[in-house]
Write a structure and sequence with these properties.
Elements (H helix, E strand, L loop, with lengths): L1 H7 L2 H13 L7 E2 L8 E3 L2 E3 L10 E3 L2 E6 L7 E3 L2 E6 L2 E9 L4 E5 L24 E2 L5 E10 L23 E6 L12 E10 L11 H13 L2 E5 L4 H8 L3 E4 L5 E5 L4 E3 L7
Antiparallel strand pairs: 1-17, 2-3, 4-5, 5-15, 6-7, 7-8, 8-9, 9-14, 10-14, 11-12, 11-13, 15-16, 16-17
Bound molecules: 2-acetamido-2-deoxy-beta-D-glucopyranose (6 copies).
Length: about 270
């Protein structure tokens, strides 16, 4: 970051900036930290900033090694210009982060290809301790029933139609919004049941009577991805942010300090005398 500044600031202005930075605020204890730690950055077309962070931006904060400026579990990887997050052992592309709405938009890379039969083959699983959740204003759920063989005591519900593309060579597969799943244990006829979040607005009113939906529509729904919302779940971090600081955490997910605009790390907040 400092190197980048040098490239475009004329020398006199650079000196002013450095002097201002050095004299800004009265340092009141606490270690200093490198400004780049909390500075937002881009990955491809996605702006990644607090409380998200790149895992390679780590520092020693109040003696805690490999600490970062952001929330636990909010690491964003940047690979080949694509931002991604990992949870439940799976990787998801980040298409947008909305810092005013506290939402992040994600897409499963495995359903990105066009044309094929884009079924979901794994559940999206958030860690139990995650500070992220599915916002019920924008997210609904699709359930895939894959490779079902009816007969031998298990009847097929009459009011559902199979999806139009065949991936399993024989067995029928179904995709239903969660609200439309017929009651009963008929799904035991299926090899796999997978539930994935999707955006509400991509679901038609009556998907079962919409042949386009059963053939391609659900693929578009998967490719549109889903959203997660986030919230802070830590009173130590509340206190820090209320004083306009940003929270630092260590690799164990423990709050280690409050990163203040005077480039000092304080134990609790930025208002301490
Ligand atoms: C690390 O952070 C913890 C708070 O989570 C703090 O108690 C501890 O003193 C810090 N320093 C080291 C060296 O662990
Ligand atoms: C970034 O590009 C991807 C792929 O073209 C697109 O889906 C996404 O919406 C873009 N995100 C932003 C924030 O423009
Ligand atoms: C969404 O969740 C909130 C609680 O988190 C609840 O009050 C609200 O009724 C829910 N809305 C819908 C549409 O389910
Ligand atoms: C589909 O299910 C049948 C058994 O009902 C199984 O023999 C077959 O291997 C399955 N196909 C795939 C691709 O998993
Ligand atoms: C995926 O979710 C569905 C629906 O909640 C559940 O029945 C199934 O057991 C889950 N599969 C795995 C592998 O967790
Ligand atoms: C800020 O931290 C100091 C201790 O460093 C504490 O005395 C004070 O009450 C805290 N202020 C707020 C607003 O939490």
């Amino acid at each position: 970051m400092a190197l980048q500044l040098r490239h475009w600031l004329p020398l006199p202005l650079l000196l002013v900036v450095l002097v201002a930075a050095a004299s800004h605020g009265a340092p009141s204890g606490g270690d200093s930290y490198d400004a780049s730690l909390c500075a937002p950055d881009r990955c491809g077309n996605v702006s990644v900033g607090y409380p998200f962070y790149f895992p390679n931006k780590a520092a020693v904060l109040l003696g805690n090694s490999s600490s970062y400026c952001g929330y636990p579990g909010f690491a964003v990887l940047c690979e080949d210009g694509k931002a991604a997050m990992e949870f439940g052992g799976e990787k998801y592309y980040v298409s947008n982060i909305d810092y005013n709405d506290f939402t992040v938009s994600l897409v499963d890379p495995e359903v990105q290809e066009d044309g094929s039969c884009p079924i979901a083959d794994h559940n999206v699983t958030l860690p139990q301790t995650s500070w992220m959740y599915y916002p019920n204003t924008t997210v609904d759920y699709l359930v895939f029933f894959l490779n079902c063989s009816f007969g031998s005591g298990i009847g097929r519900p009459t009011n559902i139609s199979p999806i139009g593309c065949d991936i399993f060579g024989g067995g029928l597969s179904f995709v239903l919004p969660r609200r439309d799943v017929p009651a009963g244990d008929w799904w035991r006829a299926c090899q796999q049941v997978v539930e994935v979040p999707v955006l509400k607005y991509v679901l038609p009113a009556d998907p079962q009577n919409d042949p386009d939906w059963r053939n391609r529509g659900f693929g578009r729904a998967l490719r549109a991805g889903f959203q997660l919302a986030w919230e802070r779940k830590n009173s130590a971090c509340d206190q820090c942010e209320q004083s306009k600081g940003q929270c630092g955490y260590n690799q164990e997910g423990e709050f280690v300090g409050c990163l203040c605009s005077d480039r000092r790390v304080q134990a609790h907040n930025c208002t301490s005398a």
